[in-house]
């Protein structure tokens, strides 16, 4: 029987089998941030252990860093606990010879934006990080997934992980996304269809014409949010799009070496007779602009639909009622026209140059509604610089957006970019949990285009209508 892409990557990185379900998995790259690494380094110190492969580690300060628009060299963390975390992280990286993108590094950014743009993510790799959205790297044919703090310590000490092998799921998407819809809408649609636990215990491989048509950065959005369906990983087989992205970003391979690598990467795919444990099929033509109405990413609807009626199932009814109460909404209500207070465009889901180009195209010649505070936080220093060179930053500033420095920012309330209780935010992030953007804050997930249109209108609108008007 043939093997899936996932099985091939795991087999190629298995140091030894632990038992029928677990293997010692070798990691090609381990990425760390300031909030999941302190206990791991402390554990090494207690045991007197060194970092086994410092050159295969990378550190990024991104979750607690402020994003105020000051020059890079002047960036400081003023929250005491956060400053202590970052300083401790810096000391540990320096001690063990680990490259760190620190607070004042011009290439600092969100870890899942920085790593691909530096050419560090390549097809067939296993990439680990103490952050659940490490699934992003599946867009380039790499197996990436998040690990816990105790596992971070184990990887630092051994460059391996005791890993429970997942099951295989294929999600095949036919057709093409219509104008006004994006990979963010597609993944929200899929999560809404299969549920927040619909891929639990699986690594998902995406296939089909709609997936093949996506850019590399759009694929990153798709794989990034697949974890919101409970997936343990996400993969897209390398193709011409993957090779083009790799060729543009990988700087230590060229000429014949790069050609040989590309040939190997193209061979990384599931065999025709490979067996998947579960297969879902969708059609991209069924996808419209999606917006979340509740407090879980699967509580989402197309903008031209209404919030569903409460289910007869007691558990589902309770969860939906609780979410609606928190969000200040009612079953049967439309989200089209719902007033908002804040717009946040950023995060490891949607803060790449492609995302910023899309919002600039929408806002040029327009102004942010007076009732709205709108922020754009680029995913990295490189993205920020490129946006300024292309005139994107100027267009956003002219429209009334705040143009910030890179960081996780308002994706989560771990820094000083926090919503006030009751504030309603149109957000390009990946999670809309209670309190995710601040205690009592109300988050509506959507695409960058939808968020930009909401900023101009002062309310959630259907981007397709706005495009038609233009």
UniProtKB/TrEMBL annotation:
Protein name, as recorded: 3-isopropylmalate dehydratase
**Subunit:** Heterodimer of LeuC and LeuD.
- Which class of enzymes does this protein belong to? lyase
Question: Does the keyword field hold Hydrolase?
Answer: no
Keywords linked to the UniProt accession = 4Fe-4S, Amino-acid biosynthesis, Branched-chain amino acid biosynthesis, Iron, Iron-sulfur, Leucine biosynthesis, Lyase, Metal-binding
NCBIfam families per the UniProt record, alphabetical? leuC, PRK05478.1, PRK12466.1
Which pathway does this chain act in?
Answer: Amino-acid biosynthesis; L-leucine biosynthesis; L-leucine from 3-methyl-2-oxobutanoate: step 2/4
EC number of the protein:
4.2.1.33
Record domain Aconitase/3-isopropylmalate dehydratase large subunit alpha/beta/alpha: where = 7-458
* Function as written in the Swiss-Prot or TrEMBL entry: Catalyzes the isomerization between 2-isopropylmalate and 3-isopropylmalate, via the formation of 2-isopropylmaleate.
Xref: InterPro entries: 3-IsopropMal_deHydase_lsu, Acnase/IPM_dHydase_lsu_aba_1/3, Acoase/IPM_deHydtase_lsu_aba, Aconitase_4Fe-4S_BS, Aconitase_4Fe-4S_dom, IPM_dehydratase_rel_enz, IPMI_cat
The cofactors required by this protein are:
[4Fe-4S] cluster
Protein species of origin: Pandoraea capi
Q: Which Pfam families match?
A: Aconitase
Catalytic reaction annotation: (2R,3S)-3-isopropylmalate = (2S)-2-isopropylmalate
